[in-house]
Amino acid sequence: MTWISKSITGLGFLFLAHACYSAHEHSALQSASAATLSSLASHSPSAVATLPIDISIETVVAILAICLGLVLGTPELRPIQWRVWAGKIEREGEKGFMNGDGEVDKDYVGNPFRVLESRPGFVDIRKQRKEFAEWVREGGGP
Amino acid sequence: MSSSLLRPQTHLPPSVAVQLSQQAPFILRNTPSAISPYSLSSLWSAAESPELWMTYENLMLSCLRTGDEQSAHLCLERLTERFGASNERLMALRGLFQEATAQDDAALKKVLQQYEKILADDPSNMPVSKRRITLLKSLKKIPDAVTALTQLLDASPIDAEAWAELSDLYFSQGMYPQAIFALEEVLLIAPNAWNMHARLGEVLYVAAAGNEGGADKQLAESMRRFCRSIELCDDYLRGYYGLKLTTSRLLTTPPASSRQSKADTGLPAPEVKAVERLSELATAKLSEIVRRNVNGEAGWEGYDKADIIAAQELLNREAKPITR
Lengths: 142, 324
Description:
The complex is a heterodimer of chains A (about 140) and B (about 325). Chain A has about 140 residues and is mainly α. Chain A folds into two domains: about 1-70; about 80-135, no CATH class. In chain A, about 65% of the residues lie in helices and about 0% in strands. Chain A has six helices and no strands. In chain A, helix 1 (about 1-40) runs antiparallel to helix 3 (about 55-70). The mean pLDDT of chain A is about 85. With about 325 residues, chain B is an all-alpha fold. Chain B contains 16 helices and no strands. Chain B has helices spanning about 15-20, 25-30, 50-65, 70-85, 90-100, 105-120, 125-140, 140-155, 160-170, 175-190, 195-210, 215-230, 235-250, 255-260, 270-295, 305-324. Chain B is globular. Classes of the chains: A mainly alpha (about 140), B mainly alpha (about 325).
């Protein structure tokens, strides 16, 4: 998905650059020819201000393409409903909150209310040590 | 890996704790021991982050758990260097270290006396008073622990963690009404905590099993709690499991007695039809969760293995009488 959005954005920028270059060239050409013409005879000055329609269309298309590419490239939106968000945590665990590089988001804490059951302030370290020693004695399965 | 060091540690399975503590020497070598605020290097290196100190604290806990006392002590020293020995949280951490390394009960008593001395100087030291309560519990002095905990809650009634601990203490002693009260206090502070709703449902279910008189009422209440936990969290396995248990119990017990007793107070008893539909919903959802998780579908892998096995068993138990 990312390569599609990136290529569309890139193409859009290419078109935009091309349109800008064309517009610049066109105005340079116009002013040069207008200067030579006005030395001979007076010509309609409105022709200098108008831009050919194909350059305008290219500009608009390029901007639309850039917008489309950027929108396609946004990361998945996070749920804003409580139950959906909570369900995502329960259902997907860490995997649901990974960014593109396969790393878990920095602000991911899992279920934020889990501390009410694990209670780090009341951790019974001796019991944990005993349990751990038993786990090792049993062969250390998962 | 380092992301799990940034979260509270106590519920991690032992295999993860081993992994973390095996990496401890490496982490300790590579993280700065102290950050002086006005050094030349602070111009280009990142400023100190709270994550660094959280990592030290959690690393210390998992090292203590696995018995790597050297690394734990190093963590403690670095934290002390940064925050000073009179920091409340560090006092608690040092006490934790001494508890973990204590050889016998006499040493533990000494730690307890030390806690009491600290609390005599400063009764508002929350982390240390929590440590003292835990140590009392660990020494099997449950009544003392309960008294201390109620005193702590008198001083600070919005401490959800302490209420939850109190509920657990009462529950371990079989004092279910008190445990339920404490859990309701937790829910007043954290009304959106879906796991605490489920926990209250479980306690109510257990209380109903041992209680003859108001069992129906408590079962109905328990069912409502599980419904609320599901309302707060889509596809909540624990909630659906509890819902399944309570509804099947409600359907098997005769509801006749509950009708009259309901007339005076509280919510009316749930209608049989509604309970049946809830039971069907719970069965359908449980089987969906189990099926999708076992098949390894993307986005359904976060459930605990043991929970899934338990749900499977419940479904099998349910399926048997129908096939017979």
